[in-house]
Amino acid sequence: MTLTRRAALALPAALALPNIAAAQDWPNRPVRMVVPFAAGGSTDVSARMIAPGMQKVLGQSVVIENRAGAGGTLGSDAVAKSPADGSVFLMGTISSHVLAVGLYRERLPYDPVKDFVAVAPTVLVPICITVHPSLNVSTLAELVALLKANPGKYSYGTGGAGGSAHIAAVSFLNTIGSTAEHVPYRGSAPMLNDLLAGQVAMGFDTPALIAQHHNSGALRCLAIATDEHSVLMPQVPTAREAGLPDYKAYSWFGVFAPAGTPEPIVTRMNAAVRQAVMEPETARKLREMELPPIEQGSPADFARFMQSELALWVPLVRASGATAD
């Protein structure tokens, strides 16, 4: 073997040595976790709940930094362009890493797959189907029958065009083969106010938002669109139990790193997230807030999940006509 050939073979390993050494010492300073949404929302709350558990594993502080704007894409883009040295991570969501691909058809400033490394999922956020009592339906089957008999007659509200609740509604209507008028709001709170007032007949949002009003009788939650029952509304059936076995709708959160982050850092961060999320007391509190922990796996498992989510939801976003461009 020639000297040139030996040098060529040795070069990749030599280039990798600084990264390996840096990863072995990681973390030697506080770690930033960017939440691309405002403080107080479910993404922020869940990140702050698991941060202490991550700190115990890592031996360094995990500092939550809110960088809200543009549906989660502003903070996500900032992390995509950050140093890939384990100093910063992103608490991404289905909105920032899946739905945005369909919404920002021309100008999404990052590629959710190429510009990030999937580290670990954290929690699932179920979507539920809720109606105003004036609609005179008590079960999901009755709602389906009503909508199929009256396509386009009724309206439904969501917290915004192109959000997870809107796409959940589009998926629901596609599943049952009917139509309804979408009324998008600037957030879940104003949507809820109009749903309570009967200004819209149906609403798609999280059980945490709806539970108090369902339990008081002001609204009727007809189904939870995941496999688990709601902790706050345990009597409400899942969509499968209510007669729609193929319908699921949810959001999810998960930790991402900038592309190029050394594998040893990604592996250790994955272990920190897994232990923090599944710590019994933290998991219990998350479930009480209707943020059930996602079954944990490797970074490769999360990357495969991401690919399947893109294949599932992006066509629905584009079919909905919603756009952020």
Attribute tags:
325 residues, alpha/beta, D-Maltodextrin-Binding Protein, domain 2, five-stranded mixed beta sheet, 11 helices, 18% strand, disordered N terminus, BUG, Bug_dom1, Tripartite tricarboxylate transporter substrate binding protein, signal
Explain what you see.
It contains eleven helices and ten strands. With 325 residues, it is α/β, with parallel strands linked by helices. It has two domains: 31-125 and 251-320, D-Maltodextrin-Binding Protein, domain 2 (3-Layer(aba) Sandwich), CATH 3.40.190; 128-224, 3-Layer(aba) Sandwich (D-Maltodextrin-Binding Protein, domain 2), CATH 3.40.190.10. The strands form two sheets. Strands 2-1-3-10-4 form a five-stranded mixed β-sheet, sandwiched between helices. A five-stranded mixed β-sheet has the order 7-6-8-5-9. α6 (164-176) links the parallel β6 (155-158) and β7. α4 packs parallel to α11.
Question: Short summary of the structure?
Answer:
The protein has 325 residues and is an alpha/beta fold. The chain has helices spanning 3-25, 42-58, 73-80, 94-103, 140-149, 164-176, 188-196, 207-216, 263-278, 280-288, 299-320; strands at 31-35, 62-66, 88-93, 116-126, 128-131, 155-158, 181-184, 202-205, 220-224, 250-258.
